[in-house]
Amino acid sequence: MDEIKIYNSALTARQVEEAYNHAQPKIAQPLEFKQVPLGPSGPGKRFGISHTLLSLEDDFDRRFRFGEDADKVLLFDKYDFKIVWWHGIAYYPVQYASNGIGMQHEAVETRGVNGCEEALMDKQCRYAKVKVIENTPARVVVEFRSCSNDLYYHITHQQPDGWGCWTDDLWTIYPDATVGRKVTLWCSEQNLWHSYEQENYVIPPGMRPVDILEKEANTVINLDGEVSELNWETGWPEGRHIALGAAKTYNIKANAWPFAIGIVGIQDLCNADNPDTCLEGTRRQYPYCFPWWDHWPIEQIPCDGRSIFSVNGHFSSTCTGAIIMDTRLPIEQKEHRLIDGTEKSITVPFMFGIIPREATSKETALKLLPLARMYNNPPIMSDGSGCIVSGYNRYKHEYKVIKKDDDFSFRLLASEQSPIVNPCFLVKNWDSNKKAYLSINGKTVSSGENLRQGIIRDTNGKRALVIWTKMQSQKPTEFSISAGQHVID
Q1: Residues 111 and 189 in one domain
Q2: pLDDT at 278 over 70
């Protein structure tokens, strides 16, 4: 007992209440869990990346050796979600909704004698780094380089020459929040199992997985427009079987949902009839149906997975595991649309993004159908006049053109099953800092929300033009480009 007061008469009820209120702390709960740093709120004044140093709190921050501008925050000018690369979680790119719920796609993972071996185990950020390659109004390109290591920082599959498993993870991000992802694993042990993607949710302090995930935590569609809504009420996801899933949404309790699009028949988007490869659950009834861990995102304990059952810090969860592919085949047998490689590397594409939430999960997922069809069956590029056309690059979600004349044109042979959705054109040999004039089927497109442009330097030091335009079409479409008079900012 402390601070005892003795009165020579009984206090009235009002006096007791006043004494109680006077003794209350100014802050009702002075000890609070710190939110993972998110940087500035969106929408931003412009679409693009800013450089900063994000701080959690002093005890955590002093464990690292990073200076100014170590971290990156990407804001969209039309949306309030963002993407953050923070050294405190080894620079994994995390997509955050406006309410702080985050989701990241893991880099390459494998297994060893000490459990999982991946960049998630790089808790001190010894190996990971991030580099901004492009930062223009048309798109942002960021490289996240990481090492697969175990919980004692031993490098995975390390060879006598010192090299082990390293990953170059290139994100090409557009103003509509669509992401073309190129993942290259550098490894001499390609015959061993590796996973190239798994989602992990960043759960804000004081919340549980059930507080951030809808009961129907994923919605999958195929290219025919069939929908499967995966429901975790029984403790294991159940839903309608659909063949050849092409896209899925991650149904968080927010105003926007992350999504993934895969190549049909190669990347498994988690149908309900495929539980052994890519679905996760506790097999306990809702609301205890989702896995719940605290070894990630910020805990420094040497552990690759620790389950918890109470709210006491920073947590993570997952529910649909990995997008599966078999990369253990010899290079000459790999599906050429999916995998490129050498004796020391394997490169695979993905498409990710964030989409504003509609009234129902079905409506939200079906909004992705045109984009999923384009990604799987990109319109053929043809009839180049005044230019050389190179076709679609799935890794960057772009079409490449080599300019020969100042005025040039080409066509995209779109159809219902091969539509055009917000295309990007990389114009090589532009060699100018002037904006372009763009017309579509003879109609001029004005610069602004529907037309973004940027100048970059290619590997030869020459200026190239990046054009992104917001439009959709299911018919053959002609694009005409000519040099303008105004300089790009």
Answers
A1: yes
A2: no
**Number of domains, the chain:** 2
Both tokens assigned to 472 = 């959709």
Per the CB < 8 A criterion, the answer to whether 103 and 253 are in contact is no
Chain segment 187-244, per-residue pLDDT in tens: 988 888 888 888 899 998 888 999 999 999 999 999 999 999 988 888 777 888 788 8
Choose the final residue of a domain: 376, 405, 435: 376
pLDDT band (50, 70, 90) for residue 334: very low
- Measured distance CA(271)–CA(242) in Å, rounded: 7
Nearest to 282 by CA among 232, 322, 229, 321: 232
Last residue of a domain, one of 330, 357, 376: 376
Looking at the fold, whether 466 and 362 belong to one and the same domain comes out as: no
Q: Which of 182, 189, 183 is nearest to 164 (CA)?
A: 189
Q: How many CB atoms lie within 10 A of CB 86?
A: 28
The tokens of 82 are what? Answer: 């963002």
| Residue from 140, 148, 145 nearest 75 by CA | 140
Q: What letter would DSSP give residue 293?
A: B
Average pLDDT of the chain, as a whole number: 89
Tell me the C-alpha distance between 133 and 119, whole Å: 21
Domain for residue 153, yes or no?
yes
Torsion, CA 92, CA 94, CA 100, CA 101, rounded to 10: -110
Which residues, including other chains, have CB under 8 Å from residue 417's CB and lie 6 or more apart? 223, 373, 377
User: Alpha-carbon distance 337 to 345, whole Å?
Assistant: 16
Residue 9 domain flag: no
Within this chain, do residues 350 and 388 fall inside the same structural domain, yes or no?
Answer: no
Shared domain for 279 and 395, answered yes or no, is no
> Do residues 369 and 438 both lie within one domain?
no
Tell me which range, 222-226, 266-270, 343-347, is most confidently predicted by mean pLDDT. Answer: 222-226
* Residue 174 lies in domain: 35-376
Closest CA to 104 of 197, 215, 208: 197
Angle at 394 between CA 392 and CA 399, to 5 degrees: 30
Predicted TM-score (pTM) above 0.85: yes
Of 28-37, 212-221, 454-463, the one with minimum mean pLDDT is: 28-37
User: Going by C-beta distance under 8 Å and a sequence separation of 6 or more, which residues neighbour residue 329?
Assistant: none
Contact (Cβ atoms closer than 8 angstroms) between residue 278 and residue 196? no
CB neighbour burial string for 291-302, b if at least 16 within 10 angstroms, e if fewer: bbbbbbbbbeee
On whether the CB atoms of residues 46 and 56 are closer than 8 A, the answer is no
Judged against a pLDDT cut of 70, whether residue 2 lies above it is answered with no
Least confident of 108-112, 135-139, 245-249: 108-112
User: Is the pLDDT at 98 greater than 60, yes or no?
Assistant: yes
330 and 291 within one domain: yes
